[in-house]
Q: What sequence folds into this?
């Protein structure tokens, strides 16, 4: 059975309406990221693939190694930096 999209949208809107202001920006940003690929395909815009340079590849390797060593920034710290709460 296919979900009732009208009901799904109404429920999503109701949840968004209940969000406190500080969380609304985060949800809006997430929705933009989720919709962006869809808007590209609707516009039939070609997806540009950026070439990874050797310098970028090395930076990515360093970042992954740093994360593997547990040197990442805790989620709570990132939220604090943007004035958000978990």
A:
């Amino acid at each position: 059975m296919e979900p009732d999209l009208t009901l799904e949208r109404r429920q999503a809107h109701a949840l968004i309406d209940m969000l406190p202001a500080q969380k609304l920006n985060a949800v809006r940003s997430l929705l933009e990221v989720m919709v962006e690929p869809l808007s590209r395909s609707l516009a039939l815009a070609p997806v540009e693939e950026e070439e990874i340079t050797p310098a970028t590849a090395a930076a990515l390797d360093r970042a992954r190694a740093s994360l593997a060593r547990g040197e990442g920034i805790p989620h709570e710290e990132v939220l604090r930096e943007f004035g958000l709460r978990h």
